[in-house]
């Protein structure tokens, strides 16, 4: 929610529209009200925002949605007419309200919506001699309608009614002197329409004449009585009717919008909102991910979410979320990291260490607030052929003994795989079966229960590779290596994701769906294909505490049964809070049952009851108590505190077995109040017995059942 696209004000404060949602900022107490897809909006990729005369909010989006948000009760209305139209470009560029009409400037013209019944009642796509279905950046009405198009400004002719007719519009391709460039916004000043353009602020009085800031590219204007606030890329100017003055400049941010609330100036930027209060500057934004880049993610032993953010100068470091607040680990805080292009993150499964792979500056270990970096100057890690110091680490993973393995992209010495052992020694490995060159780019890494290293190639001889050093780092004679391709049963050689599940099976995501290697110790076996994913491009795979598969694709997020053949849930941007259907990464906090899914437009957190099993039986908790069994309602009793591979028996007070079943896995199981014959039980006291496979570990609880 850092990338601000538009600002407006209401009685309560400043409304901010971003590419990742919107929020109301109340300056009186510095509080925020967040509005996003969790509020049943079809999109949160906003392009514009409007407060109407009833103090309700209207949003325009990149996809073409117009969304009404009732500030009193939080209800929303998604208006789909533009989105569902046959137009090739549907972006909503600007919103303006007049009376009962919402004017919508779009990529193909102007649409009119009745704000009382949300109906679209008119569309204008031809403005005089301008091209049909021309892009309209802004619209306003001052007795007549004004539109800012890609070819100039179109103004409704006096007295015309049929605005669908092109002859109802006057065209102004340029002002009386000079030229407009891009016309970005309209406002009304001294009872005249003014326009913010690439060459200054113009006013309309039968013709368009320069008002202020001639030749200055203006991105937004805001009128406050007799004053005009004009925003350029890095500056704010004030025009008082006679003179213009520069009142603020900041080259660290790109300005997008400006408004004024209670005398303070608010500037929308690509990195939040700047508030100017009598010359005192502060950044205003809710605590949210500092970036919308979620290349990959992992959760450490303390439940902190770690996120890799970019490459080629686009990264901001590693984002960290502790469940309440966001932070960033970057080279400004840890200079030895040398870059903010953190491309991959992995959390240790045995300590509180987190591993960071960078795009160009090697590998780092973050632990206990300190960072240790490894690069070409202090390790055998090697850079790309044309720059030995540009060390790219695409992934890292610990083996069963705590050694850290890394994939080193385009290694000069053709050693695509490295290991840093627990005693601090480094070893590098090349591939000969088949031979890999510097053009074969190694990406995602997974290690199975046999300590075999699996990785995929992003380009070159693409496919699936494996390597096992057989526990002898310096002796390569007993090593095992190989290559699996479409000839061995893969749907395609374009591998996109890898994950070893709780049973040790290797799941292989591809651009055409999913394969499974059931026995990684015998990788030559033909692979099993998952029908529900055929034709979908898999982008990420995660496994929860009960071995369910959460699969990110180019068309949404799927929750699959443990064997992958049943689709339990299929989440998309249309039926869930997912901000986009293209899932970039997934990870799961198994201890807390939280699924994180990252997209280009934000992060989604899904809370589940699939919790990591307890290490040993303590007290098991059953709830609700009393447990009401009702033929007309599907109630369930929760049994919490189970260990791995638990079994459940339900016994009555006469020691009669009522029901027995295997828990689904994880810490929690459920009882539906039925006996082994499928009948609801009678009222009474029931004993809940949980035990492991061999009945060596047992835990007991009881519950009162009321049959209605």
Automatic annotation (TrEMBL):
InterPro entries linked: PorZ_N, Quinoprotein_ADH-like_sf, Reg_prop, WD40/YVTN_repeat-like_dom_sf
Which domain of life does the UniProt lineage start with? Answer: Bacteria
- In this chain the PorZ N-terminal beta-propeller domain maps to 14-169
A Pfam family of the record is Reg_prop
What is the name listed in the Swiss-Prot or TrEMBL entry for this protein?
Two component regulator propeller domain-containing protein
């Amino acid at each position: 929610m850092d990338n601000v696209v538009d600002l407006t004000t209401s009685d309560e404060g400043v409304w901010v529209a971003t590419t990742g949602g919107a929020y109301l900022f109340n300056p009186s107490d510095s509080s925020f009200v967040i509005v996003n897809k969790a509020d049943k909006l079809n999109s949160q990729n906003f392009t514009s925002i409007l407060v109407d005369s009833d103090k309700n909010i209207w949003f325009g989006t990149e996809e073409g949605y117009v969304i009404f948000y009732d500030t009193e009760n939080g209800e929303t209305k998604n208006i789909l007419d533009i989105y569902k139209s046959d137009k090739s470009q549907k972006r909503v560029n600007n919103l303006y309200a007049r009376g009962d009409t919402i004017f919508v400037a779009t990529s193909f013209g102007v649409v009119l919506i009745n704000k009382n019944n949300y109906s679209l009642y008119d569309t204008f796509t031809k403005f005089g001699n301008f091209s049909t279905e021309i892009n309209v950046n802004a619209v306003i009405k001052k007795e007549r309608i004004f539109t800012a198009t890609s070819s100039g400004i179109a103004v409704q002719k006096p007295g015309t009614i049929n605005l669908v007719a092109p002859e109802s519009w006057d065209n102004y391709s340029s002002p009386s002197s000079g030229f407009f460039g891009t016309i970005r916004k309209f406002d009304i000043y001294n009872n005249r329409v003014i326009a913010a353009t690439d060459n200054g602020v113009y006013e309309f009085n039968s013709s368009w004449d320069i008002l202020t800031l001639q030749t200055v590219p203006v991105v937004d204007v805001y009128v406050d009585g007799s004053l005009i606030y004009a925003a350029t890329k890095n500056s704010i100017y004030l025009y008082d009717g006679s003179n213009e003055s520069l009142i603020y400049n900041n080259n660290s941010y790109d300005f997008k919008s400006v408004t004024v609330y209670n005398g303070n100036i608010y500037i929308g930027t690509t990195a939040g909102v700047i508030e100017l209060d009598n010359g005192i500057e502060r950044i205003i934004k809710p605590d949210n991910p500092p970036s919308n880049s979620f290349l990959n993610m992992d959760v450490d032993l303390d439940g902190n979410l770690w996120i890799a953010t970019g490459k080629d100068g686009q990264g901001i470091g590693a984002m960290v979320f502790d469940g309440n607040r966001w932070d960033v680990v970057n080279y400004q805080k840890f200079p030895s990291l040398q870059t903010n292009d953190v491309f991959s993150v992995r959390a240790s499964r045995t300590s509180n260490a987190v591993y960071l792979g960078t795009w160009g500056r090697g590998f780092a270990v973050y632990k206990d607030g300190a960072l240790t970096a490894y690069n070409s100057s202090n390790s055998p890690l090697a850079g790309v052929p044309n720059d030995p110091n540009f060390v790219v680490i695409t992934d890292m993973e610990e083996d069963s003994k705590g050694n850290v393995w890394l994939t080193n992209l385009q290694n000069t010495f053709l050693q695509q795989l490295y290991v840093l052992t627990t005693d601090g020694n480094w070893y590098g490995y090349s591939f000969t079966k088949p031979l890999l060159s510097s053009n074969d780019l190694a990406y995602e890494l997974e290690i199975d229960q046999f300590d075999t290293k699996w990785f995929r190639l992003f380009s070159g001889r693409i496919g699936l590779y494996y390597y096992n050093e057989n526990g002898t780092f310096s002796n390569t004679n007993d090593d095992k290596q190989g290559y699996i391709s479409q000839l061995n049963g893969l749907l395609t050689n374009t591998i996109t994701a890898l994950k070893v599940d709780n049973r040790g099976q290797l799941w292989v995501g591809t651009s055409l769906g999913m394969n499974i290697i059931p026995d990684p110790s015998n990788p030559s076996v033909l692979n099993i294909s998952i029908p529900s994913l055929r034709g979908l491009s898999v982008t990420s795979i995660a496994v929860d505490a009960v071995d369910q598969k959460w699969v990110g694709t180019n068309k949404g997020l799927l929750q699959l049964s443990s064997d992958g053949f049943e689709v339990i849930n299929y989440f998309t941007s249309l039926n869930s809070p997912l901000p986009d259907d293209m899932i970039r990464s997934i990870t799961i906090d198994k201890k807390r049952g939280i699924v994180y899914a990252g997209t280009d437009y934000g992060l989604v957190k899904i809370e589940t009851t699939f919790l990591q099993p307890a290490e040993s039986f303590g007290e098991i908790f059953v709830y609700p108590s009393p447990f009401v069994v009702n033929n007309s309602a599907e109630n369930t009793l929760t049994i919490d505190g189970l260990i791995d591979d638990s079994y459940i028996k339900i016994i009555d007070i006469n020691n009669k077995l009522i029901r027995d079943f295997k828990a689904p896995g994880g810490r929690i199981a459920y009882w539906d109040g039925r006996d082994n014959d499928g009948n609801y039980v009678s009222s009474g006291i029931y004993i809940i017995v949980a035990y492991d496979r061999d009945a060596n570990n047992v835990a007991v609880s009881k519950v009162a059942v009321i049959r209605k």
